[in-house]
Amino acid sequence: MKGESQIHQEEINKQQNKAAHPYPLQRRRGNTATKSPGGNKDIFEVKEFADGTISRSHVSAVVKAAVKLGQRNKKQKSNLFEGDGKSINVQIGGIKIPKESRSHTLKCTLPHEVCNGSLGVALFVKDLSKDFKQDHEPTVHHYNELLSSNNSKSLVSEVIPLRGLKSEYQTFELKRRLSNKYDKFLADKRILHRLPLGKFFYNKRKIPIPVDMESKNLNEELKQALHTSILPLNHKGMSSILTVGSTAMKMEDVVDNVMKFIEIIKVKYPGGWKNVRSLHIKTESSPSIPLHVSTISG
């Protein structure tokens, strides 16, 4: 029988396999490309930034284009960044496959909170007792008190003990509902790989962010987690997607997050910037818009 840690990792791998690949580009006149989603012909300039220095104006233009395309078939709004929040993502593709034999994730702490705040945050916590038959309400009470004493109660909408997760969300449908219930999920790092989550969490890029519930500065620990997004990585060479914001956010805040993500991958992405084949911006309903495409051969 597969362990929970193995299942957790397999779900990350499945999410990477299903990651949307860049919309096919047709090269024309050197550095321009044509996209034709839904019969619409839009010209996007495909640029290469060999040194990783991508201008803020270029990032802003690409983010705005992705949001606009995502709303093309919907009722037009006066402000592209108002209304129901839909995720805005950065898709990254590498040139050479990392040598690591196992998949892992890259934590990216961004300047602005990436969830739109309309649904709130759930926190998975460690049970106080190992007895499975023990009522988990004392655990909920304990951690709510801990949050209150650290001026952090407003940061978390619901505390869910591991035992409560296992007993109350056993079916796929219940797990799907839970994944839709909150914008973001945090988890005590001591139980992160024991969480019996379904594919819905990974498909929606709602992988729980690990937090240290024993931190001496719990408030800061939680705030940092709310500004963190997860980039799944593996050794199979697939592209990966990280959420950098939502359409409910101000455009400048989304751009800030993208700029910070670029700085992070220069240092933490396997092989650094030289190993980045492409960066694309996409929303839940838009094609992938190229932000950077490298011409370096593999």
From TrEMBL:
<protein>
    <submittedName>
        <fullName>UTP30</fullName>
    </submittedName>
</protein>
<dbReference type="Pfam" id="PF00687">
    <property type="entry name" value="Ribosomal_L1"/>
</dbReference>
<dbReference type="InterPro" id="IPR016095">
    <property type="entry name" value="Ribosomal_uL1_3-a/b-sand"/>
</dbReference>
<feature type="region of interest" description="Disordered">
    <location>
        <begin position="1"/>
        <end position="39"/>
    </location>
</feature>
<feature type="compositionally biased region" description="Basic and acidic residues">
    <location>
        <begin position="1"/>
        <end position="13"/>
    </location>
</feature>
<dbReference type="InterPro" id="IPR050257">
    <property type="entry name" value="eL8/uL1-like"/>
</dbReference>
<dbReference type="GO" id="GO:0003723">
    <property type="term" value="F:RNA binding"/>
</dbReference>
<dbReference type="InterPro" id="IPR023674">
    <property type="entry name" value="Ribosomal_uL1-like"/>
</dbReference>
<dbReference type="InterPro" id="IPR028364">
    <property type="entry name" value="Ribosomal_uL1/biogenesis"/>
</dbReference>
